[in-house]
Design a protein that fits this description.
With 183 residues, the chain is an alpha+beta fold. It has one domain (19-177): CheA-289, Domain 4 (OB fold (Dihydrolipoamide Acetyltransferase, E2P)). The chain is built from four helices and eleven strands. It has helices spanning 2-8, 76-79, 156-159, 162-177, and strands at 21-29, 32-37, 41-46, 60-66, 69-75, 92-100, 103-111, 113-121, 125-126, 140-146, 149-154. The strands form two sheets. It has a six-stranded mixed β-sheet with strand order 8-1-2-11-10-9. Strands 3-6-7-5-4 form a five-stranded mixed β-sheet.
Length: 183
C-alpha cells in the first residue's frame, strides 16, 4: 500500500532502464579494427570481378553487377588516403545503402576481412577524436569500447558521401571543359 501511495504522489517506483545497444559489423583494414552500424548494411559478398571505370577518383575500384544493378565499389583504404590492400581469400565487399536526397543508393566497400557483429552499449561509445586519427575525423562516428580495446566506428554517410563522390567524378569533365584549368 505504501508503494501505491508513493506512486500516486508523483514519484515513480525505481525501475531499471534497459541499456541502449547498437550493433556494428566489425572488420579488419590493414591491421586496424573498424565498425559500421549494421542498419545501412544490405549484404556482404565475396570479392569478385570488378569492372574498371575510366576517369574516376583513385579510390573507386570500379563497378559490379549485383543482380542486374550497377553498384560502384569503393576501395576503403584508398578513400582513407592509405595504400590499397592486396586482395586475398578473405577480402570481401560490403554493400551499404546510402541516402541521397529522396533516393537510396547502394555502394560497395572493399574490406580486408569481416570479423563479427558486436553489440555495443550506447554508454560505451565515445566521441570521435579531434586529433591523431589516421583518417579524416568527419569519417568517424565515434569510438566503441569493447573490453580493453577501442574500435573506430565509421560514419557511412560521410565516408560514402554521394555528393562528394559525385563532385569528384565530375572534376575531370569540368577540367576538360575548362581546358585543363583547376576549378
Amino acid at each position: 500500500m505504501g508503494q501505491l501511495v508513493k506512486a500516486q504522489g508523483g514519484q515513480q517506483p525505481a525501475t531499471k532502464e534497459e541499456p541502449v545497444i547498437q550493433q556494428f559489423l566489425t572488420f579488419d583494414l590493414q591491421g586496424e579494427m573498424f565498425g559500421i552500424n549494421i542498419l545501412p548494411i544490405k549484404e556482404i559478398i565475396e570479392y569478385g570481378k570488378i569492372t574498371a571505370v575510366p576517369m574516376v577518383p583513385s579510390y573507386v575500384r570500379g563497378v559490379i553487377n549485383l543482380r542486374g544493378n550497377v553498384v560502384p565499389v569503393i576501395d576503403l583504404p584508398v578513400r582513407f588516403g592509405w595504400q590499397s590492400s592486396a586482395v586475398n581469400k578473405r577480402t570481401c565487399i560490403v554493400i551499404i545503402e546510402v541516402e541521397h536526397g529522396d533516393e537510396a543508393m547502394d555502394i560497395g566497400v572493399v574490406i580486408d576481412s569481416v570479423s563479427e557483429v558486436l553489440d555495443i552499449e550506447e554508454k560505451d561509445i565515445g566521441a570521435s577524436p579531434s586529433f591523431g586519427a589516421k583518417i579524416r575525423t568527419d569519417f568517424i562516428a565515434g569510438m566503441g569500447r569493447v573490453h580493453d580495446d577501442f574500435i573506430v566506428l565509421l560514419n557511412p554517410s560521410k565516408v560514402l558521401s554521394v555528393e562528394e563522390l559525385a563532385d569528384l567524378q565530375q572534376m575531370p569533365q569540368r577540367q576538360a571543359a575548362d581546358g585543363g584549368a583547376e576549378p
